[in-house]
Amino acid sequence: MSLQPVSPAADAIHALHAVSSAGPSLPWAVHYVDVAGLKIAVYDSGGPDGQQLQPPLLLVHSMHAAASAFEWQPLMQRQARQRRVVAVDLPGCGLSDKPEVAYTPAMMSAAIAAAIDWINAAEVDIAALSLGCEFAALATLQRPGRVRSLALVAPTGMEGRHANEHHRAGRSRGWDFVRRLLRGNRLGRLLYRVMTTRLMIHLFMSLTWGTQAYDKALLRQARACAQRPGARHVALNFIAGTLFTYGIIEIYRALPIPVWVVHGDQGAFTNFGACPQHTGDAAQGASHAVKREVFDGGAMPQFEWPDAFNQAYRRFLLRPAPGSLRWQQPRTTQSHDAATPASWGATAR
Predict the structure, then answer these.
(1) Which stretches in the chain have pLDDT values below 50?
(2) Going from the N-terminus, what domains does the chain have, and what CATH number goes with each?
(3) What is the pTM of this model?
(4) Given this model, what pLDDT does residue 17 score?
(5) Above pLDDT 70, what percent of the chain?
(6) Residue 67's pLDDT is what?
(7) Which of 71, 128, 279, 331 is the most exposed place for a label (fewest CB within 10 A)?
């Protein structure tokens, strides 16, 4: 049996994708966590009935012109069958507060750390996407012993050109004068309107997936998020580059827990030449081989290959193993939920 990306018509989760401009990012219970006076939205699946053998899973979305926790809906639905799953709308995104302030990596990592505390479990697993991976790595070090594992999907900061950078607290890749230039004026508002047109979001998603045949639910959700009052503030910080942490590669290398790095081989985000082979400190007995997997697709395998991604993630959690794998997915028709693990192939990389 073979696999291909699941189409909206084939996947039952798309029955839940009708999201209005004022609605939540995900169809689960919404709660709010206070982080330095900001209300941060978290979505809680509540967990299945009966004993849960895995700790809660916390999902952290990416950052772009109109990001939200919706980016994790396929994995959230699948993982919620076995355990409690919580997703967060980062500050300035989704249903979270959107003040006109300077958005920083410290603010984002504080929101994730607060979500970890709010979950109130001994340990959590975290899965993060793109720039959210940087925030999740910072939060993991802020909550030692509270994060069991970290899944990094298409992480920023692992491009080969960043391999020799050194981290310094508070230093970003951006220019604060650009942020100030765009703040609170017509130029910033005009730029955001252009960024969030249907055409520009379509181009961004096409670059992300490496094809125009991406899931259009992402386009609809991004357009809805862009219409929320104040949505431009965090996006303009993203454009200015002030949300990217200089030397984040050193933070990734310092992670004292098992790490799964997964990305695609198509689209604009395929350079992970600085991906570490190990994380943690061997001298302290906390060194782990990084498990790296490459999917045949773009930078959002959790949407493009929802079943295969979920199964691969489960294998990482249950039987972590060193080395790198590359998923080779045949592109023939398959209906949703018809996949079986025996139909997947992997070769050493």
Answers:
(1) 1-22, 320-349
(2) 12-348 (3.40.50.1820)
(3) 0.85
(4) 37
(5) 83
(6) 95
(7) 331
